[in-house]
Amino acid sequence: MSRTVSIFLDVLRCFAAIVVVVGHLTQGAFSSGLRDLTLYAVSAVSAFFVLSGFVISHVATTKERDPIKYAIARMARLYSVMVPAIILSGLVLIVGLKLDPNFISNWTSPDSNLGFLHTYPVFRFLAQSLLPLTFLNTIQNHDAYPALNSPIWSLGFEAAYYSLFGVALFTRGRRRVVLLLLLSVLFGTAILRLLPVWLAGVALHRLTLRLRLTRYQAMLTGLPCLLALAAGCILWPAFDSWSNQPHSMLLHGFLHGRGRAAQAYLFYYWGALTSLLVLAVASLQNPIGRLLIPMEKPIRWCAAHTFSLYLFHFPLYVLVFVLTHYNRASRIADTAAFLTVITLCVLLSSVSEAKKFWWRNMLQRGMTRFRAQAEGSPLV
């Protein structure tokens, strides 16, 4: 991966995270009088899927060429932020139930995703948190996540894609076929339905490795990609409207699925546009690099906090409101809430991100101990 592409992926990661945070701020629970941009927050997840496929393909062919190293690195990355996010969500739930149970009922009422929390919210929260820790919270079109932290749903998809890619990469022959079939049956149609978006990132990485373009070829490749991207952004409202109109069963089945894949058309559309953007940058590296490389340090710093920003912001929005009960109709108050949440996420990220290596070492020691016991040899 070139330096320019690497920096740009961080820029894209930061932008997608901010879109998610802003999208959730526009929901009625946190603001009023604003257009609800939740749809764009969901769209940003498709960009994360493409980025994830690209980066995982890169590390699997450079740093993590052993299946054990690959598995440990992937688990450490997810757990380092997900575990603190679940703990934070639980603490905010307890505080919220004490200070403003009516507000918290937005996520614990019987008609919500976690309606059973209405009776025993804290205990049910603990039960609902165990499933995401196994990364099986979204299998078979289910959608389980802790109250106050719906973004955790995507980690089940990410873990599934890591597993499928790892099996495809590190196994061969009949074993590969059998394992892929078993995992596909386990994960279910929703996860498989969005798999092409993630695989688009893998394909992009493999394509950019082979790009050897002259200046003229780079322009012929990059500029049409940028024009197609601009056209796609302009045409999105019309496509969104058309996609939600009545269609034949065959067409409707292609555009919509079940569970989180009910908006498959949205993920495919924005995943395709994200892919065009990355391909354009990979083609036009020289002029874009002159813009990005001087800003590399602040870009890297911001990107280092995006995972924490993605998983911490929602419970922090809830916490800020139950503590202050700010005027949701005030744009100044909304902006203050947004900036407060961003600041808190950055502060918490400095702790969670540092634990990534602690998780990796712990998982490595556990794996070493397990293999030693399995082989019947004493540990040194």
Distance between the ends: 39 Å
Shape: globular
Question: How large, in whole angstroms, is the Cα Rg?
Answer: 22 Å
Structure classification: mainly alpha
Describe this entry's structure for a reader.
- By secondary structure, this protein is mainly alpha-helical.
- The protein is 77% helix and 0% strand.
- The longest helix has 33 residues, at 67-99.
Short description:
This protein is mostly helical. It contains 16 helices and no strands. The model has no long low-confidence stretch (mean pLDDT 86).
Write the layout of secondary structure elements.
Layout: H1 3-25, H2 38-62, H3 67-99, H4 101-108, H5 121-134, H6 153-170, H7 173-187, H8 189-210, H9 215-243, H10 249-255, H11 264-283, H12 285-292, H13 296-303, H14 306-324, H15 331-352, H16 355-375
Task: Kindly list the characteristics that best describe this protein.
mainly alpha; 16 helices; 380 residues; 77% helix; 0% strand; globular
